[in-house]
Write a structure and sequence with these properties.
It contains five helices and no strands. Helix 2 packs antiparallel against helix 5. The longest helix has 31 residues.
Amino acid sequence: LNEGAGLVGTSVRYNILFAATAAGALFAGIALEAKNLLQPSLRSAFILAVLWCAAVIGFAAASNFVIAVMLLFAVGFTHLSFNAMAQAMVQLSAPAAMRGRIPGLYNMSALGLMTFSGVTIGFGGSLVGVHWSLGLSAATLLAVILVLAFVIGRGTRAAAG
């Protein structure tokens, strides 16, 4: 795309970035349903979350438009895959008597955290720039995920040993 295309060029590039995320999510839905590629497991959910964070960090740091598009495709793919995996894990882990309440609480919490992240990334963006804010937020989430994976893995090994 022509960098000097002005507002029309910017609008087209912006729509391409949105479309890349949507295409990644669509591809994830089709791939996961068609081949049943990932079985619901805590390990798969953690891996997908780590890959999502890496793709978001990469997008935040990308200076090349084509690379940004590819990373947003990965963001869309891993986001839908992780959410589907996490929802499946919540439903499978919930006691039968609470299968309506626990997934409802999970969804409400997840959506609330997404709303709050928009505020924190926006506020951070006003201080350090949107790219830095997005990258640092994803890096922080990545650190939390890795600590949780370590703690859960340690607890699982202790229980088995």
